[in-house]
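Onboarding guide, step 5: your first structure request.
Type a short instruction followed by the sequence, for example:

Predict the 3D structure of this protein.
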Amino acid sequence: MRLAEGGRVDRSAPLTFTVDGVRYTGYRGDTVASALLANGVREVGRSAYRNRPRGIVDAGVAEPNALLQVGPEPMRPATTVELTDGLVASTLSGRGRLVEPNEQRYDHQHVHCDVLVAGAGPAGLAAALDAGRSGARVILADEGSEVGGSALSVPKRWASVDEAAAELAGFAETRVLTRATVFGYYDHNYLTIAERRPRGGRLWHVRARRVVLATGAHERPLVFAGNDRPGVLLAGAVRTYLNRYAVRLGTRAVVCTTNDSAYDTALDLLASGVDVLVADARAGSARAAAVRAAGGEVRFGTVVVGTEGDPEVRAAHLGAPTGGPVETVHCDLVAVSGGWNPVVHLHSQARGTLRYDESLAAFVPDRSFQANVSVGSANGDLDPNQPLWTIQSPDGRWHEHFVDLQRDATVADILRATGAGMRSAEHVKRYTTIGTAHDQGKTAGVNTLGVIAEALGAGPPGPTTYRPPYTPVPFAMLAGRDRGALHDPARVTSIHDWHVARGAEFENVGQWKRPWFYPRRGEDMTAAVLRECAAARTGVGMQDASTLGKIEIVGPDAAEFLNRMYTNAFRKLAVGAARYGLLCKADGMVFDDGVVLRLAEERFLATTTTGNAAAVLDWFEEWLQTEWPALRLRLTSVTEQWATIAVVGPRSRQVVAKLAPSAVDLSFMTFADTTLANGVPARIARISFSGELAFEINVATWYGLAVWEAVYAAGAEFDITPYGTETMHVLRAEKGYPIVGQDTDGTVTPIDLGMEWIVSKRKQFVGSRSLRRPDTARPDRKQLVGLLPVDPTELLPEGAQLVAAGTPLEPPVPMLGHVTSSYRSAALGRTFALALVKSGRDRLGQVLHAPLGDRTIAATVVEPVLYDPEGARRDG
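The system replies with structure tokens like these:
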């Protein structure tokens, strides 16, 4: 069936492959489908439910029949599987099987772009070229192995495709992804792309400023008796196999159509030496003259009403669409076109609306709700079409008029559904299972709607809902590697380069790169942290705290909202004052904490832990939108709008005095807006997470580095020392300040942390009812305590289990709790730890044991506040 010349296959690269144990040959550039057809293979399996012989119908992702098991991957359409040397596959009857993935590898990639173009056909190429020439960051993604789309089926357009590809390759800011399907379109122009690669693939997470949907259109089959017989293909697919793959699928063809597009297929078949009869359901077409001039026959008002052949097509029955005399015509190929359906899947996933276009008998994009535009055939730029939903059967029966080939669903099944009272397309879909198979109704969907409309005597019903994924995606890809360069984008503060230049070691916290410690020459982490801690306790230290989450709460009901969310009261907080707040989940367990500043009567700024910033905002939004929608306020994340510099220690006031003299007299938990000595507007707060006299200087992000350097210069005479997160943890732990997520584990209440003082008994808040349960007052609950190892040089491992002294270590061992934080302290001159221990506050003075693999560490239970319990140092 392969022509002696032509096509885009590489005849210099022959390949061998095996399907169902039979060995075949093909060329580089073939798909398995085109290679099978070239070898004369028409039947590719049996239908899933009625065991009928089935053949290839399409040349792309809409293929309903030719499904393959290729290595570990099931349900791969043969029309999309590129031929490789030695490929081994087996055909499937609609059901695949999962196989151990072996060497399959899947990765994730996160990117941003100015323009994402979905589809690299003529319209997509034009859009990508326009955007690329402007210097914009462009991603062009297409599911094919090369760009060009429908133009690859038209040889005279190949040169322009190759020129466009070459120009795109020269744009520095343009990335072209082939074998890459844009399969999901979510809120805020977030899209997902599944890219196929040898032995695996990559899942792209893309945030795009603008999206161009150039996704093309799917050709519709015609619904007549025996339309599932091998040898009945879509007219556009016949043209693709002929021109792109140089595969001629027959010697005598009947081309049945309701629109002009199939005439191109007829003319190309005639040029390749095939006898062609065009059966056009319409009354006439201007394209008929060209077919007749080329030696073909054209009959108007005529369609294929049935086929013969066992199993392949050997004859077609021709007649009028609504019945009458039937003529039998011998043929070995039936090419059909019932019109084209714009691929509106991504437009609909993005909440775009659709409208029915009478001239196309198809649904086209209407309104968009995100920053996208549909172009080309995806926007309805197609030949007019005369709808023909069903073709009368000569015997008056409908049980062989197949609508969904994968589900073996016929017109008879739809009529049974409507006869049972179904009126909604969604109900009919579920009653018949039409559109629920691998192709998700790409060839069956609109025909189904038309048949329903005819059965009910109504206009066409609305389309069913399009949901991701557009085409199936391997679960292994969704669960692929997401680490290192493949992980979420790294977030850095405006001061990051300074930290790098000073040799900081970093740790990742909620995507942020945070300075962990600043080792000097010859120092390990322990020495560096002890030095940084000593500086903060005896002199002055500074920390980049920009990564703390920051949420603005603005509106007349802002105070009321905070009062309902936090365990303590906020309605009466004065403007210019700050208050520490604690958040619980509905079960009363600690969720997050932070400081809330009242900026104005109706404006607050709430800070969160670095890693929980997004989760807290989501939690706030959930309650605002679902429980209290009447509250008048809005929530805005401003984390990245502010750089925050903590100046900590007994000498901190002297450093701040050089930059903002008006701020040095602020009392604890107040703040003021001021202008620094270098002219930068700033908000300075008297907040301390170290227990020392401390100030937090907040400036716009773009001033962050300049102000950091100004603070560093101002503190030079006091040997100011930058410190990282490890030192911060030591300082706060010495004061007994818990870290949510480290000293809590989702089962800890404020009372367990010894923070009864922050839980209001006079108001309702999220979690308050749960905190009144008897279970939360059990005396044997785990409580936060301090631990002092009996040997002051021993460091308890974090996570170590704790048992009572003398407890036998034969399983099961009754555990009392575990170590949550453990450090060496410069101020205490020893090691110490925090722990969650059953009835912890009743065990003060007791010695507990931490059994380790090679030794047991004994430690005394003490109060969690180990340094300056009176808080005198905090006020300077």
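Each response can be followed by summary notes, for example: Residues 525-538 form the longest helix (14 residues).
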